[in-house]
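Reply to dn_fold:

You asked what the input looked like. This is it:
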Amino acid sequence: MNSSKQEYQLLPVASLLFAATLWGVVWYPLRLLEDQGLSGAWSALVSFGAALSVFLWIFFRDWQVLRQHFLSLVLMSLAAGWCNLAFIMAVLDGNVVRVLLLFYLSPFWAVCLGWLMLGEKLDGKSILVFAIAVAGALIMLWNEDVGMPWPRDQADWLAVSSGFAFALSNVFVRRMQSVNVRLKSASSWVGVVLVAFIWIMIEGTGFPDVSAMTFYMAVLLGLLGFLVMTLSVLYGVTRMPLHRSAVILLFELVAGAISSLLLTDEVVLPREWIGGVMIVTAAWLAARIHAGEADG
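and this is what came back:
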C-alpha cells in the first residue's frame, strides 16, 4: 500500500480523534459564556445558528438529495439536536468528567443500534477493542467521589440521553452513505437550533441581557468550534462501522479529564488515568484495524 493511500485511509480516524479532543475541551468556553450571562440554550442557539448560516446554501444546492432522504435527515437532525443541547446543558451544570463518562455509555447504544438498524456484526478483533474501551470506561467510573454510572440528577440524565441521541444520530449518518457530509452537517445544525429554541420557549427566560462581545464570542465558537467539530465527526462516522467510530470517539474522555484537571479544581484519580490509557489503547487498535481492513 502506498503512503498516500494509507494517509487517506487514516484520515477518518484522525478526523474523529481531532473532533473528540475538541469536544473534550469545549465545556470551558461554554462556561465562560455562561459566566457572561449567556445560558447553555442561548449559546447553542447562537453558536449553531452561526454555523448553519454558513451552510444554508447546501439545502438549495442539494434539494433533490434532501427530498430523497428527507425522513432520515429529519430524524438525524432531531437526534443530533437533542444530543448537542443536552450535552451543553450537562457540562454546564455537572461534573465534567462524570458527564463525559455518562455520555460515553454511547458505545453500548451504538453496538445495539448498529446491530438492530444497520445489521452490523462484531468480529473477534472488534469485540476485543470494544471490551478494552468499555473496561477502561468502567475503571474510570468505579470512583467513590464521582459515583456509579447511574443518573442521580438532571445533569446525569442529560448526559445519558445525549449519549443515546448521539448513537442514534450516527445510525442515520451511516445509513445515508450517498448523502454528503455538508448536507448532514447542516441538517444536524438545524436540529440543534430547533431544539434550543424550544428549550428557551419552555424556560421562558427571554432575550439575555449580555454584551455584544459575548454574542460575538458565541458566534466565533460556532464558526471555529462546532462547525469544524461536526464536520470532523460526520466525516469519520460516515467512513467506518458505527461501533468502531464510537470506540475512537471515547478519546473525548481523556481530553475532558485532562482539561478539567488543568482548568478546574476537579480531581482525576489514578484509576481514572489507568482507564484513560486503556481507552487510548483501544482507539489506537481500532485505528489499526480500520487501516488494515481498508488495505485488504
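Residues 157 and 166 are 14 Å apart (CA to CA).
Hope that clears it up.
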